[in-house]
Every structure is written in C-alpha cells, then in structure tokens.
Amino acid sequence: MSILKVHAREIFDSPGNPTVVVDLYTSKGLFRAAVPSGASTGIYEALKLRDNKTRYMGKGVSKAVEHINKTIEPALVSKKLNVVEQEKIDKLMIEMDGTENKSKFGANAILGVSLAVCKAGAAEKGVPLYRHIADLAGNLDVILPVSAFNVINGGFCEAISIGAEVYHNLKNVIKKYGKDATNVGDGGGFAPNILENKEALELLKNTIGKVGYTDQVVICMEVTASEFFRSGKYDLDFKSPDDASKYINPDQLADLYKSFIREYLVVSIEDPFDRDD
C-alpha cells in the first residue's frame, strides 16, 4: 500500500504553542499524526524548525509545514514506497535533509510524517499500532507500560489508581501554600511556592504515607540541571537574584542527590547534571 498524498498543517498543542500535524492518505484512508514537544530542549537534540519572531513569538512552524508539502510529499508519492517500509521511508527523509540535526526540514517535519507513516503501516498489516512498533523494534514480547509510580504488587489499572489518589491528596496538602499553589503547569504538575528542595520531597513523602502507599510508590525526579548550570557550577536558587557565592559544584550536587535517595523514595533522577558535565 503506497502513499497517495501527504498534507501538513499548523495547529496548536496543549500548552498553546504551534506544532505540525500531518495527514497521510493511502487506499485504506486517512492517517493523522501531531508532533509533540517538551518544555526544555537539549543542545544535542534534533532541531525543531521554527519561524522567525514575527510569527507566534518565533514559535510558528510554517517553514516545517512547507517543507513537508513542497518537498517531502512529492518525493514519497513519486517513489511509491509501501507504508510498512518504515525504516526505508525514514532513511529517505533523513538523506533528503542531509544535516546531522535535521535542521534543513526540521525534526518536527520529519517526525510528523514518520508518525503518520507508522499509523498507516499498522493499518496495512491489520495490527494495533503498539504491535507494529514492537515489530519494527524487533520486540517479540510486549509489556503494557505503567505510570511513573513503581508498583510492587499489581498491574496497570492499580498503578493508575494509586497515581490518581496520590495526585489528588497532594492537591489537598499543598493548599496551605495558597489558592494559586494548586495551579498546574504544562505537564499537569502543581507549582507551590516552595523554598527548599527537600520541602517538595517531604510533601510527596507525607502524601504517599497519608494514602497508605509507602511500600508501593517511589519518586522519580526530572531535574533538567542544564537550566541552572553556571560556569561549571549549579545555581539551585536560580529563581532569585543571582549570587555566585551560593553556587555548588558537581560533587556537592551529587551529594545532595544521594541524600534524596537515602531520605526519601527517590529511585530515578532524569538529567541530574548539565549535558556536558
């Protein structure tokens, strides 16, 4: 089953930023994919192509959309590639782009098309999307993913139930910080006015204990340390006026993480240091 047509558009994602959506057509119908994006971007990540500052404060994606509609689409249609040939299609787009970080077309353009192709490939094979992806990866055994809460006894449904209970009880606990403390960010997390790092962990630890899941729930941290890396050191108080005397070195930060692991239920720390540290 070859690709008949590809059409990209600019839409808005859940935080309200422009992103790319791709409609891919085959004889079996329409397959649509929208490109996600994180709040922070690493310097070694593939480049998401954005417009100049005159459109949506520099976050527009009309250039990426144009690359899909005027360059990628004609190439894929003319070559009559089968949608189950995921690797061949991805490789073609990467070769056409010709840059190490996909900066010509934009990773958001290439990914949007790739995702739509993947959905079409699953339909062509008559299997669920997760099964098609597992086949592409060579995974014979498929394990249903669970939430970030690590469950010792129980499966997916119980994990979701526990996560929901902790989340809603945490909301009640942090109301002491004021009405705005229960407002949430892009990822749905709360943002109370906490002064110390351990204060947040104490809140979580106490909430987990309050709902009776101390032995079933662990904590994962997403630090994104590159955001407060300053000249070889780390500014943990980066939201306050700059004071270099308060910066700590990598060893001191490592010791802090070790204390989190000892004193709390921390089992995973994502991006604990700067990318080049």
UniProtKB/TrEMBL annotation:
<dbReference type="Pfam" id="PF03952">
    <property type="entry name" value="Enolase_N"/>
</dbReference>
<dbReference type="InterPro" id="IPR000941">
    <property type="entry name" value="Enolase"/>
</dbReference>
<dbReference type="Pfam" id="PF00113">
    <property type="entry name" value="Enolase_C"/>
</dbReference>
<keyword id="KW-0324">Glycolysis</keyword>
<dbReference type="GO" id="GO:0000015">
    <property type="term" value="C:phosphopyruvate hydratase complex"/>
</dbReference>
<keyword id="KW-0460">Magnesium</keyword>
<dbReference type="GO" id="GO:0006096">
    <property type="term" value="P:glycolytic process"/>
</dbReference>
<protein>
    <recommendedName>
        <fullName>phosphopyruvate hydratase</fullName>
        <ecNumber>4.2.1.11</ecNumber>
    </recommendedName>
</protein>
<comment type="similarity">
    <text>Belongs to the enolase family.</text>
</comment>
<dbReference type="GO" id="GO:0000287">
    <property type="term" value="F:magnesium ion binding"/>
</dbReference>
<keyword id="KW-0456">Lyase</keyword>
<keyword id="KW-0479">Metal-binding</keyword>
<dbReference type="GO" id="GO:0004634">
    <property type="term" value="F:phosphopyruvate hydratase activity"/>
</dbReference>
<dbReference type="InterPro" id="IPR036849">
    <property type="entry name" value="Enolase-like_C_sf"/>
</dbReference>
<comment type="pathway">
    <text>Carbohydrate degradation; glycolysis; pyruvate from D-glyceraldehyde 3-phosphate: step 4/5.</text>
</comment>
<feature type="domain" description="Enolase C-terminal TIM barrel">
    <location>
        <begin position="141"/>
        <end position="277"/>
    </location>
</feature>
<dbReference type="InterPro" id="IPR020811">
    <property type="entry name" value="Enolase_N"/>
</dbReference>
<keyword id="KW-0963">Cytoplasm</keyword>
<dbReference type="InterPro" id="IPR020810">
    <property type="entry name" value="Enolase_C"/>
</dbReference>
<dbReference type="InterPro" id="IPR029017">
    <property type="entry name" value="Enolase-like_N"/>
</dbReference>
<feature type="domain" description="Enolase N-terminal">
    <location>
        <begin position="3"/>
        <end position="133"/>
    </location>
</feature>
